[in-house]
Amino acid sequence: SATLEIRGVSRRFGKNTAVSAIDLSIPQGQMVGIIGRSGAGKSTLLRMINRLIDPSQGSIFFDGAEVSRLRGSPLRRWQRDCAMIFQQFNLVPRLDVLTNVLLGRLNHRSTFSNLLGMFTRAECAEAVAALERLDIARTALQPAGTLSGGQQQRVAIARALMQQPKVLLADEPIASLDPLNAKVVMDSLQDINLREGITVVTNLHTLDTARTYCNRIIGMAAGKIVFDGPPEALNREA
Ligand code: ADP
Ligand code: ADP
């Protein structure tokens, strides 16, 4: 099974060190919650894993391959194996929901053709099935920007599923949502983790959410890991 290995990873922005010499090993199938105050480096860490940004130092491996060195099509392959969802959903608001979900397949293409007619019937059916699984298939033909925040985050999860990922990163996925929608989104991430065995690594700012959903909690402060263990261990310390 495929482990995500982070070895000696640091990231500086000018003189500011956002992430400082982090080592982490995350086996396939874990559901990991990263907690810490704003500015602790959580988002920078996730962005380095899927190569939205590069480390200043150190290496990241997945399944033995050094993802922090990939270029070209192997990098595109990693970015499809490693899906990401964001606090602000990052959908294309004017495009309909179904097309937004199908965009999860773009990295499966070796060349770009025009978008129209680009997706097969089977892919469209798969996108509808993903929307059904998240209970929002009735919104398929609406512009994504007209949906509620909770619905938009579910669209983003459906788009991530279309990537057929091995790892799913979530950067504060419920920070903009009301409690009911937050629960639906966290339940969905947990279901994906349990049913598909997809590794889920999510930044959260409330400890309660991490305790409820994650089997491993990583605490970050000032770019460093200050806690790493199961929720029970955290309860003992607190
Ligand atoms: P968190 O996700 O825990 O809130 P971040 O990873 O977003 O923390 O930020 C960690 C530190 O790095 C903060 O001091 C932040 O201001 C800084 N930082 C993050 N991204 C950038 C950037 N693109 N340019 C400069 N500084 C950044
Ligand atoms: P987060 O939700 O992780 O706290 P932020 O709101 O801190 O994210 O950052 C949003 C965007 O601004 C990101 O692209 C981040 O890289 C960038 N950013 C954060 N801090 C700084 C900074 N001090 N200087 C420049 N860009 C920053």
UniProtKB/TrEMBL annotation:
GO terms for molecular function: ABC-type phosphonate transporter activity; ATP binding; ATP hydrolysis activity. Belongs to the ABC transporter superfamily. Keywords: ATP-binding, Cell membrane, Membrane, Nucleotide-binding, Translocase, Transport. The chain holds residues 5 to 242 of 285 of the full protein. Residues 4-238 form the ABC transporter domain. GO terms for cellular component: membrane. This is Phosphonate ABC transporter ATP-binding protein.
